[in-house]
Amino acid sequence: AHNPSMWAVHVGLTEQPVHGAQSLAVDKIIYHARYRPKGLDYDIALMKLSTALVFNGFVQPICLPNYGEEFEEGTMCWISGWGATEEEETSVVLRSAMVPLLSTKTCNQPEVYQGYISNWMICAGYLDGGTDSCQGDSGGPLACEDSSVWKLVGATSWGIGCAMRNKPGVYTRITQSLSWIRQQMELLLSRKDNPESLHFTLRLK
Q1: 177 DSSP 8-state letter
Q2: pLDDT 10s digits, 109-127
C-alpha cells in the first residue's frame, strides 16, 4: 500500500465502473510519521498526483478550514463515500448523508467513547444511530458549508460498528492537521528538482 504505483485516483464520477472520469497516477504518498496502525491519532495521509486535476462541473476543490476555526456542535455537515451499506459490502453509487457535528465532551461520555476522543478527532452523527459512515468510507470527507464556502472539517477515520446507538463516526480533525499539511506541501514545493516551486506559494490562513 506504500507503493504509489499501486494507486490511481479517479475523480468526477458518481457511479462505478469508471466512465468518463479522470484517472490520475499517484506520484507520492506522504504518511504522518507519528501514525501507528494500532493507534487512533494522526490518521492522515496526503497523495501527490503525477499530473494536475482538471476542474469542471464534476471536479472541484474543497477549502481547508482556518487555523483554530471552531465548528459548533449541531452543525449539519455531509459525509460521502463508496463504503458498505445495509444492503451491500461496497456501493457502486457514491452515497452521501447529512450528520450533525458532536462536541468532544459529548463524544467522550462514558456511554459513547469513554474518553478515547483526542484533539486529533472530531465526531459526527446521531447518538440514536441510523446514519453513519462505514467500512470502505475511510479517508472520505466530512464537509461543512460555511457562508456558501465548503470546508473539509474531517476525514473518515474510525468508529465502533456502523450507525449504532451511541457510536457515532469519528473523523480526523483537519484543523489539528493544518500545520502538518502545510509543512508537507512546503517541503514538496521547495525541492530544487520541482519546477513548480518557482511558480507557487502555498497560502493557508
Answers
A1: H
A2: 999 999 999 999 999 999 9
Q: Which residue shows C-alpha cell 462505478?
A: 16
Q: Map out the domains of the chain as residue ranges.
A: 4-61+177-198, 76-175
- Number of CB atoms found within 10 A of residue 157's CB: 22
The whole-angstrom separation of Cα 6 and Cα 4 is: 5
**For 4-61+177-198, CATH number?**
2.40.10.10
Q: Please say whether the beta carbons of 94 and 81 come within 8 A.
A: yes
Whether the Cβ atoms of residue 171 and residue 121 lie closer than 8 Å to each other: yes
Cell, residue 131:
446514519
Average pLDDT over residues 63-72: 96
In three-state form (DSSP H/G/I as H, E/B as E, the rest C), the secondary structure along 122-174 is EEECCCCCCCCCCCCCCCCEEEEEECCEEEEEEEEEECCCCCECCECEEEEEH
Of 18 and 50, the structure prediction assigns the larger pLDDT to 50
CATH number assigned to the domain with residue range 76-175, chosen from the 4 options 1.10.10.350, 3.30.70.1150, 1.10.8.60, 2.40.10.10: 2.40.10.10
Q: CA nearest 28: which of 8, 3, 48?
A: 48
